[in-house]
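Predict fold of MEIOB protein; 137 aa.
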Amino acid sequence: DIGTERYTFNFTIRDSPTYFINVQSWGREEYIRSLSESFRVGDCVTIENPLIQSKEAEREEKFNPVTPSAYKLLLSENHSVVKTSSCYDTDTRLLSLLHLPVKNPQDYYSLGDIVANGQSLHGRVLNLLAAVMAVSE
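Predicted 3D structure, encoded as tokens:
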């Protein structure tokens, strides 16, 4: 609808050391807020009825992890469902994936690198590997 605000929430899922895919969702604020609060990093999820779309690598991978797939999953407010599994139902093979980064370890910049080389990096899009202490609006 023209003039209606839409919100987005993106995340990446993985089920093996090699394969992972980006997930994109669009919808009303209530839907996106509820979806984003329904699971955390490290949770196991089941995604029902996503739309599979070809990704536009140049555009989408600028702000999302580069994935080995030529596709992305699109969640629809009216058709898709994301369910979390309890920790007792978690497949132990998936637990080993929690600490694997989605990028090559040589493809990151440290904050020290940015401070030391900021002038030469100006205007570039970089990958950072850092610990997040808090997330808020």
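Strands lie at 7-14, 20-27, 45-48, 51-54, 71-75, 81-84.
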